[in-house]
Amino acid sequence: MVNLERTRSGAAVARLSAPGRRIWTNRASEPLIAFVEAGRQRIALRWKFNSEATLIREREVALVYESASPHLRLTSHWRARQTFGPIEHQIRIENLGSHDIWLPMQDTLDFDLKIDPQDKMEHVFVEKGATTPSATGTHRDVINEGYRWTGTSSTYGDLDESKPREIIPWSLVKADDHEQSGWYVGIEFSGRTRIAIVREQDSLKVSAGLNPDPVPFRTRLVPGEAFETPTVFVGAFRGGVDEAGNILRRWVREVLGNSETWKDPRYPYVVNNSWGGGVDVNEEIATRMIRDSASLGVEMFHVDAGWFRGVGDWHPNPKKFPHGLTAIAENAHQHGLKFGLWVDWTQAGISTEPGALNARDPKVRDWMVTDLPADWEPESFKGQTIDIGMPEAKQWAEREVERIVTDYHLDMLEHDGYLVAHGCDRSNHPHAAPDPLNKCIYKSSGFYFVDSTNSTDVSYHATRAYYAIYSKLRREHPGLIFEGCNDGGRMVDFGSAAHVDYFSITDTYDPVSNRRAFYDTSYVLPAPMLESYVEKWPTPRIENFRYMLRSGMMGWLSIMMDTALWTAEQRETAKNEIQMYKSELRPLIRDADLYHISSRPDGVHWDAIEYFDPSRKRGAIYVFRGSTAQAITHRFVLKGLDPASRYRVTFQDHSSAAKVVRGADLMKSGLLLQLPLINSSEIVSLKEEAPGR
Ligand SMILES: [Zn+2]
What we know:
By secondary structure, the protein is an alpha+beta fold.
């Protein structure tokens, strides 16, 4: 529960608490900016509370403050879009005057929570799975006196290995009480953001919003325009981190998710992705893959990179696809499959074909984040990111994705590459100009980045343009599905969750990386949104093959292998696994509560994820045995069951005999698993029996 209270200076969230639990009281008033700049002048602001314009309803509060000179209106907006889960907060500043104004950093949320210096508490946060999930991934830090922590998120993941890894912009603080209660905060924005936590004596300070680093942040506000801070959500919980997640994931589904997508019980779909054959995809390969996908029970055929004429030239390569892409889409549809396509639609190349985005074209040269050298060339499927925060570039991109979706009969559009500019050197774009004395331009993976004090403002404008483009596409194509890839696991945040239907959660696709990325990300986001690409991996035995598949079957499954190379036994196994996924596992992935019942996967020891849906009285446990030669048995203590009920436990691969066990036993002494082989797995089904049996 989050209680909002007016203080004398305005308003703030006064108290955070789960029902009947410890109350966290905030002592800080709203963090309203103290000055703006006009021309070269810094002008101090005097905010006056406007009670007439203020809106107070049961689940929504909009507090309005005004500044007479310069004429500005600031709205502090709080709302509860559901009867459960967190409440959201945003600050909006409108320029009602007739001159350009420069705003300094306006944080979304700035709490000063009163604590007892003796309090013990824990801080939980999770990394993005960008590139490869690290050895830690899920962090559980003790918050001692003097604790100072900042976690950052952007659309770039972890390009800079000298810095701490990026987080999914979310943090949870849990008290050391037997109720395991606390609060969490998250950010609904994909641009450069940060969450900071500082403990000092009787104070726990929490800030969330745009990333003010590098200082000074500034953003221009032209007359009539409004600046909106990233929306931040904040909620309270009890019962531990998984219970907090069970509420948050449901809230994300109901509030941020796309109801059109969730309506289809086949979501998350089973996908076959052409990258298993690399960039060589062509009409013949696609036609064979479609036939094969349909016979395996797959539901979507996804053409990955390699189909186009060139980077920025998003038309099918006529040598590879002599009959075009529409013919492939229609072929997929005739086989009962959806058709998805990879496009890196913010990248420019050097194609001179009509309709191509050519970085050397004087008309678009200024859309690049910096002047490219005359001899610059794109890589085979990576070009130079344009700044879609620039209105002309945004309009081009908007028309281009609309054309691609319509012309190629898409059911799914995947964006990849870095679609939000990483800094920008231009002084004629809507964002702030770079600092000429303090900027760094560098090349990585064939394209250019700019680091300067305007980086956060560049990402602010480009991210909003991206959201606007996708919101429009969604309105015009209600059934269209969006995959957010962004070089695998880099753009996993709650702003993306409101604009795409699923994420690629890592860029490394072996079983352990897939399980690690799922383990981390599933603390905060609904499992159907979490895509694992399953890549070819050594599977000398069929048990290893099942282990490989199941490691990517806990959320959204995309197979990225040349299935034509599978043996007859592997084909049969894959078919059965896909069938079981669709009938038994997918309903749980969509609706069930999720529990992390082991430590994070390391590929050596045992690990497991439990799903249990109290309304269906059913559950499933994904169990994995790593490479450990010693332990052929392992006991998992289950969660979320009724101690008084009895559960029928069955083992998909018959690794143990079916049995009936009391909930209390499963949650105290646990469930014993026995797997004789290394790198093998089991799917355990749970069915709660009717009382009295
Ligand atoms: Zn720019």
